[in-house]
Write a structure and sequence with these properties.
With 405 residues, this protein is of the alpha+beta class. It has a domain of 163 residues: FAD/NAD(P)-binding domain. Helix content is 32%, strand content 24%. It contains ten helices and 22 strands. The strands form five sheets. Strands 1, 2, 8, 9, 10, 11, 21 and 22 form an eight-stranded mixed beta sheet that branches. It has a four-stranded mixed beta sheet with strand order 5-6-4-14. A hairpin with a 3-residue loop joins strand 9 and strand 10. Helix 1 runs parallel beside helix 5 and helix 1 crosses helix 10. The longest helix is centred in the last third of the chain and has 22 residues. The two termini are 31 Å apart.
Length: 405
């Protein structure tokens, strides 16, 4: 479907999981309203949403006061229900969180406390119980088990949502790039569009679009590259996801074992600082102005960040070596052999928001809005899991803005 009119009630920029979920939600609430969605790519799965691990997180990592905790628990159930309705296979394999030493037992207890505060099912189990769930798991004395954590094929989910919003009557313009704002709309690579309300869900470029509208003055996207290393072991080599105890000072969960929707094993992801926003492979897509801007941000973090960015960057860069990735992963699982991990998957880029006033990485969802536009600046993990519930929240916010205008 193409864009068949020049003025819409709602116009969404960005066709990933957040944009599609929001188009679906707005059209369900306002079936008579005209709604359009544009994306600069030819497919809805070209970037972060389609390169996602597909893990449906249960929601026990996040503090109870966070938006992530609120959206992840509900989003998990909504997305599972959606997949069931649409006959999309879901692998409910669960997740073990294992500890390396006595020091990390405190981390397990903190995650259990958060799960209880969030109303999420999570069990503190013994080493022996962990090995019954997954005989190859390595842990010190105790572990956590999340029985509801699951996995789906993210591309199938995106394609299904894409078809559904078109069937609802949303005009979808793929291969249509946002260029700049006008007084009553936007200019795209395929002409001008007017809209009563514009929603920016552009991921890696959300901050740049927001700047055009007078938002994101204190924030910029800082891209991080995520890579997974795939195992040649047969399906069934592991029964469940296996994660380390995370450092809750960072928005990354560390290298872990993940099952794909088909049961294949992979380890990762990395969180390597990227040098431009779409640095997926080599010099492809190199943009000099982005390169210099991001280098300046990273240099500032080296000296001024309230966390050890230098250590983070150094450790992550080493993960380009498959032997390093395997060595890290071998602390979680028995019988990990480097010869079985040779194939890298497609890189993904995390659109991590940086507060340029404080040099802090934003760890929660973040939105800015006015009477005519709304900008989703930070929707990183568990953004995929949370998409349907987050879309409800954003739709509420849009309606509030329209009522006040």
């Amino acid at each position: 479907m193409s864009l068949v009119q020049k003025k819409y009630d709602f116009l969404i920029i960005g066709g990933g999981i957040i944009g599609l979920s929001l188009a679906r939600e707005l059209k369900k609430r306002h079936p008579q309203a005209s709604c359009a969605l544009i994306d600069k790519e030819k497919t809805c799965h070209a970037h972060a949403s389609g390169r996602n691990s597909g893990v449906l997180h249960a929601g026990f990592y996040y503090s109870a006061s966070s938006l992530k905790a609120r959206f992840c628990k509900l989003g998990h159930q909504l997305l599972k229900n959606y997949c069931e309705e649409q006959n999309i296979p879901v692998l409910t394999c669960g997740k073990l969180v294992v500890a390396k030493n006595e020091h990390e037992l405190a981390g397990l207890n903190e995650l259990l406390r958060r799960a209880q505060a969030n109303g999420v099912q999570l069990h503190l189990i013994s080493k022996q119980e962990a090995e019954e769930i997954e005989p190859r798991a390595l842990t010190f004395e105790k572990a956590l088990f999340s029985p509801t954590t699951a996995c789906v094929d993210p591309i199938v989910v995106l394609q299904t949502l894409h078809r559904e919003v078109q069937q609802q009557g949303v005009d979808v313009g793929m291969d249509t790039c946002y260029l700049h704002k006008t007084e009553d709309g936007i200019v795209t690579s395929k002409g001008k569009l007017q809209a009563n309300f514009i929603i920016n869900a552009a991921g890696l470029y959300a901050d740049q679009i927001a700047l055009d509208f007078g938002h994101s003055k204190s924030h910029r996207i800082l891209p991080f590259k995520g890579l997974y290393l795939y195992s040649s072991e047969p399906v069934g080599a592991l029964r469940t996801h296996i994660y380390p105890v995370p450092d809750l000072n960072y928005p990354f969960l560390g290298v872990h074992f993940t099952l794909t929707h088909s049961g294949q094993v992979k380890i990762g992801p990395t969180a390597i600082p990227a040098l431009w926003r779409e640095q997926y492979q080599g010099l492809s897509g190199f943009k000099p102005h982005e390169f210099w801007d991001i280098i300046k941000r990273q240099a500032s973090l080296l000296w001024k960040a309230p966390f050890d960015f230098k250590k983070l960057a150094f450790e992550e860069m080493q993960k380009y070596l498959s032997c390093k990735m395997v060595k890290i992963a071998s602390h979680l699982v028995k019988d990990v052999h480097p010869s079985q991990y040779r194939v890298w998957g497609k890189a993904g880029i995390r659109a991590q928001l940086l507060n340029i006033s404080t040099n802090q990485l934003e760890t929660d969802f973040l939105i800015e809005s006015d009477s005519h536009s709304l900008h989703i600046l930070n929707a990183v993990s568990p953004g995929f899991t949370s998409a349907l519930s987050f879309a409800q929240f954003v739709a509420d916010r849009v309606e509030q803005q329209l009522c006040c205008s």
